[in-house]
Amino acid sequence: MSERDGPVRPVAPALVRYAGLTGAVLLAVAGWLGGALPGASANSSLLDIWRAPHGPAALGCWLAGTVLLVGAWWSLRWGAPSTRWAYLTAGLWLLPLLAAPPMGSRDVYSYACQGWTWTHGIDPYRVGVAAAGCPWTDAVSPIWRDTPAPYGPFFVLLAGAAVVFGGGLTGTIVLLRVISLAGVLLAALCLPGLARAVGVPTRRAAWLALACPLIGVHLVAGAHNDAVGLGLLLLGLLVLVRRPGRPRALLVAGVLLGLAVAVKAFAVVVLPFAALAAVLGRYTVRALLRDAGWLAGGVVAALVVTSLATGLGLGWVGALSHSGESQQWTSPPTAVGFVINYVGILFGREPQAVPVVRVVALALLAMLVVALWWRAWTALRRLGDVRQRLARLGAARPRVTLTGAGLALAATVLLAPVFHPWYATWPLAVLAVVTVSVARTVWFVAPCAVASCLALPDGANLARFTKAPGAILMTALVVAVLIRALRVALARRAR
């Protein structure tokens, strides 16, 4: 542990391990009692959930399990006793959730139906699964039955393969979970190499990224496609960190990052920072264009090949706009739009502010990504202009580029029109390998802990039942953050 971490309270590792395991078992039980099963209601109210045959027991197990699992993860935010201990414990916590039915979301049924749609010769980017005639439509959440697929062609290809080899809904769900588990394992393999390249203790990076309840509940039990996208992203970054400036390695890294984008599009914000990581030697415009060109070639090749292989072309780009049809206060721009509407209603007119605020937030996101990239570029140029020991310089370069990528992902998650708890796993994994100080880890660990408590076993999000108070609290938080940022900026200018 670094001296900058400050004093920490000792926690018995065995207590943490088995408290978390107990929590995972209780969550698996909650999944069987009231999870996102195919025959269960896909649009229940909180009262409906309580009145279900096993409603009180399911909610009780969910609450106790969530508290134990989140508390166990949080208690070792300074780092596990060892890297091996972190991997063993995180793996132990995954076992009960592997045996649970889909829980925390019904998206896996959307994946299955989108794969079925494509394998039956219908474009999933043009029609919803209901119009396509998917036999499993009743298991899909009502809001997504009539919307085109918002995922990239590579994931549609994977979902189609799961349908073909699964032979039915159960087999398809099992294979989709296997794909998600493979993504988590791929991410787990990449974490030590990335952490060592930056100089962060691997025992902390592995613990923060893998033991987080969002991984077990949503990426594994919920079989979210974020798992495979995240695994591809981290592997691409690892190749860049280890072999910058080498054309073959840059092409491979570009293909991996392109496949990550072809799973979920918001991985695209990492590409500008990946271009910086591709440079070997001094940072000049010429070097950037040379090395980033090889990387871009790999990205374009992956996108073109997957688009052609599925026969879907670029239809997935236009389908992305439909992902914003869900409106919840967990997205800060959406919450601000809600509050503006509430104020307008008090004066006799609802301004319909949500779409406008979302557009403003996306424009702000674009500016933030550019600012983060320019900050990283100037920092790397500065490193090249001074003489430093090679070991220090070697750690500084990947730290700058990976930090920029992690912050860009965090900004994307916060400013996107929609936020779901599993989205937080993207910035969590990248920031876990670059953050040295425990005090700084709290800024992204605490939101992930809160996000872990939002989704009920059947897929209902607590945000649905707390729309007005949640929007007001989120807007107040946004205002507080903006005021603090303004004060810090003014203080720096006064110096």
How would you describe the overall organization of this protein?
With 495 residues, the protein is mainly α. It starts with 12 loop residues before the first helix and ends with a helix. Mean pLDDT is 90; it is low at 1-8 and 386-392. Helix 8 (169-198) packs antiparallel against helix 10. The protein has helices at 13-34, 46-51, 55-75, 83-98, 107-119, 129-132, 153-166, 169-198, 202-210, 213-221, 226-242, 247-261, 271-277, 285-310, 315-319, 332-346, 354-385, 390-415, 425-432, 438-451, 467-494.
Topology, element by element:
Blueprint (H helix, E strand, L loop, with lengths): L12 H22 L11 H6 L3 H21 L7 H16 L8 H13 L9 H4 L20 H14 L2 H30 L3 H9 L2 H9 L4 H17 L4 H15 L9 H7 L7 H26 L4 H5 L12 H15 L7 H32 L4 H26 L9 H8 L5 H14 L15 H28 L1
The percent range for strand residues is under 5%
**Oligomeric state of the chains present here:** single chain
Indicate the low-confidence ranges by residue numbers.
1-8, 386-392
Could you give the distance between the termini? 33 Å
The value of Rg in angstroms is 22 Å
Summed over residues and divided by their number, the pLDDT gives a mean of: 90
